[in-house]
Amino acid sequence: MSRGKRYEEPKLNLKKVFAVIIAFVVLIMFIFMIRGLFAKDEEQTRITSKDYFAAFQNNKWGIIDSTGAVVIDPSYEEMMVVPNSKKDVFLCTFDVNYETGEYSTKALNSKNEEIFTQYNQIEPLQVVDRNGQVSYISNVLKVQKDGKYGLIDLDGNELQPCQYDAISTLEGKQDVIKVQKDGKFGLLDVQGKELISTQYADIRTLKADDTTNYLVQNDEGKYGIISNTNQVVLEPNYDEIKDVYTTNYYVVQQGETEKLIRKDGTDVLTTGFDEITGILKNAENGVIFKQGEKYGIMNMSGEVTLNPTYDDLKEAKTGIFIAEQGGKYGIIDLTGAEKLGFTYQSLNYYEKADLYVGEDENFNNSIINGNFEVKQTGILIDVNEVDGYFELRQNDENKYYDFSFNEKKESDIFKNRTLFVSKKDGKYGFVDKDGNVVVDYIYDDVTSQNSFGYAAVKKDGKWGSIDDKGTVIQEPTYNLDDYLTIDFIGRWHYGKDLNMNYYNQL
Question: Is residue 235 in a domain?
Fold first, then answer.
């Protein structure tokens, strides 16, 4: 007996079934792709690009990246140099003979492959400023072939053929390169273009922040000034030219006489002082001069407008001066009227912020506005004139203020950070941008999250690190009491010698 049916069962349309399944799979893939893009974008806001750093471990040198991953195993006796942290070009020195000074060099990429092998030597162009701080010109390398020197960029493109007897840098200058040919010196820019032809007995920096003028010496040993367009600014007639000058006035020395001259070489001030130490921002107001061990102001006619009674005197902004008396610093105007009392061990002016920062004998700082009012006190961590804020350590916390002295949240200043320092009951932890606790309050001290997503944490006198999610990467292990900078990339901590810019690991 057959079983009855209440209705006819429909047949499956396999084509439609497969189409629905495929559409569903595509939809799921699309959702994951979108989530992946957002996750990628979120990650990029935290770590914008990969950087490279020298690494030191077991008395050997190698390279790590900004995630803490080892790129080149620490296996070299000499420090590896990273001229540009954004480029995977690493310079190695080896086979060093300390008696003769001879050595070999090579360049490697992140695959540990040797590059630029057509040259006998490959070296960075090291720049040292007046404070002894070391850096490298970031897009140019000095190369040698057959005893002559040239320039290449970090992609290996030739900027200048190997034709020079020597290539070096000027003090504090990242934008020019000094070259020597047939016993004469000239200047190139960092693209290899000639700025000043090789015709001078020497070329030096006139002033670190001057990007257009340079001090040159002729064959007679006399100094003049030449521009970066190879134009003579001041004829080489002088035994010395000081880095005290404006567009139209220069302080020079001829024999035993120091004097102020105009650009055309005519004398302006020749007597009434032992030394001229500054030309005022409004040059017609005159100069700061030194008589004996004291400083004063003299106008362009030679009339003393402020008697030399100060132990130090520097113009902060037009007509306003930071002065020293009796070992303490204050602020005066052009007439000598006191604007801020002589109470500070040191006093500095930040022009773009229009802020003065005074420091007392206990290393506490006063932040003073343009009207000479103390607006905040604490220990100054940073004044960032580019992003428009300063950072103070106040009551064991780091506080942020704009230049109008409005307090800012850390998340207002550092929009790409995922963790923000928080303190509770004398202990430190981290919260997210909404104030939710991510890392419990268990640490004795911490640092803010760095640009690579890591923060340093201190417990029981030892330092370690966490990542951008608050996960412990390095348990607090390191005693860094003697270190000026506490910073971590993964398990690697910043080295003791700030000039060397490297990370270290046990």
Answer: no
